[in-house]
Amino acid sequence: MPAATATLMDILQRTDVWRGDRLAALDGQAQASGFDTLDAQLPGGGWPRGALVELLSATRAIGEVSLLLPALRAVVDEAPIAIVAPPACAHAPAWAAHFPLAQLLWVTAADEDIAWSTEQLLGSGALGAVLAWLPARVDNKTLRRLQLAAEGCRSLAFMFRDESCARVASPAPLRLALVGSPDGLRVDILKRRGPPCARSLLLQVERPLPWQRVLRRSVPPVGHTVLRGVPSSVKASQPAKVAP
Predict the structure, then answer these.
(1) Are 59 and 160 in contact (CB under 8 A)?
(2) CATH number of 28-242, picked from 3.40.630.40, 3.30.1330.10, 3.10.450.590, 3.40.50.300
(3) Which end of the chain is more exposed for a tag (fewer CB within 10 A), N or C?
């Protein structure tokens, strides 16, 4: 018997095929972000499971982790969350206000081991989400390995990178640029499976400090940390802490 021939409509129904004039369907493989304005612009109506999401920014402490809190709260009960090589030490009380600490896996790694560690965590299939701060120099081959590892699981996979990486191609299906402002967190969708997003989104994310105080601080680029409320004379001798 001759093999069945797939029609064009059959092909267009596949989740790995999308049209340039509409957002791709993810067949239930999306986790709501907690922000209706953002979900309306994301394929599937939320953060994709089993795919890399790149979050690019020039500075830290602008609400980039707070942006993920609603989704992380939704998945933490089903599986632990891994946090890989963040730019500062964990501030446990702040994290405990959102998640059971027993459900958080904190991974430290040298720059050359961050991508490998992230790949192993995604490949385990045992996590609800992985948050990783990638070093400045990550080649396309490494990113493809991470994307393949993500495709083999249902984990949320968030990669934090410097904004300069926006000029370089990436296999990540979703790339967002983040900028802090006195009015909230500005989100620009640089890449998605669907038509370009021509407008910026302004989101009101949770913040441990008012936006005005955050933006008055001089936040250094990736690889540097700064303490809040500590005199400059003692900053060098004290470890910085990161909180959602």
Answers:
(1) no
(2) 3.40.50.300
(3) N
Whole-angstrom distance, CA of residue 229 vs CA of residue 170: 37
Q: What is the pLDDT of residues 116-132, one digit of tens each?
A: 999 999 999 999 999 99
Q: What is the per-residue pLDDT across 35-94, written as a single tens digit (0 to 9) for each?
A: 999 999 999 899 999 999 999 999 888 899 999 999 999 999 999 999 999 988 878 888
**CB-based contacts of 95, cutoff 8 Å, min separation 6:** 101, 104, 243, 244
pTM of the entire structure? 0.81
Other beta carbons within 10 angstroms of residue 141's beta carbon come to 10
SS (H, E, C) 90-142: ECHHHHHCCCCHHHEEEECCCHHHHHHHHHHHHHHCCCCEEEEECCCCCCHHH
